[in-house]
Amino acid sequence: MNKAKINQIISYIKAQDEFPFDVFDVEDQESVLGYFGFHSKLDDEERKIMQAELMEMAEAAQSAEMARIMCAEPVPQRLYRKKYCTRTEQSMSMEEWLKTLPEELRGGVASVV
């Protein structure tokens, strides 16, 4: 086993701007390594180490992507409840809630208000 070769490959991959693979993609090591330009032969022990490292990178990339998606479009909370309301009390009446909605979202209910 050549630890220097494995460390150099892993360091190179980690230094790249993106890791566009998820945990299912890294099961095919050859494709992932080929994407980064590596076509070297690995023995069984090197393959196990590489698989563990690629899986770790894929999990980190997936977690970062989920966090990015969750933070990208925050829910407009003002449309659904007043600040500091509790679960047991009704925060606003139906009429007040409808007034907070934009005109295009009110639909046929706008005539009631």
Characterise the protein shown here:
This protein has 113 residues and is an all-alpha fold. The chain has 2 domains: 3-72, no CATH class; 77-108, no CATH class. Helices cover 53% and strands 0% of the residues. It is built from 5 helices and no strands. The chain has helices at residues 3-15, 29-35, 44-72, 94-100, 103-106. Helix 1 (3-15) packs parallel to helix 3.
Concise structural overview:
The chain is mainly α.
State the separation between the terminal residues, measured CA to CA: 75 Å
Summarize the biggest pleated sheet.
none
Structural class: mainly alpha
Question: What is the mean predicted local confidence, pLDDT?
Answer: 77
- The arrangement of helices and strands along the chain is HHHHH
Our count of helices gives 5
> What's the helical proportion of residues?
40-55%
**Percent in strands:** under 5%
Number of strands: 0
List keywords for this structure.
113 residues; mainly alpha; 2 domains; 5 helices; rod-shaped
List the helices and strands and how they pair.
Layout: H1 3-15, H2 29-35, H3 44-72, H4 94-100, H5 103-106
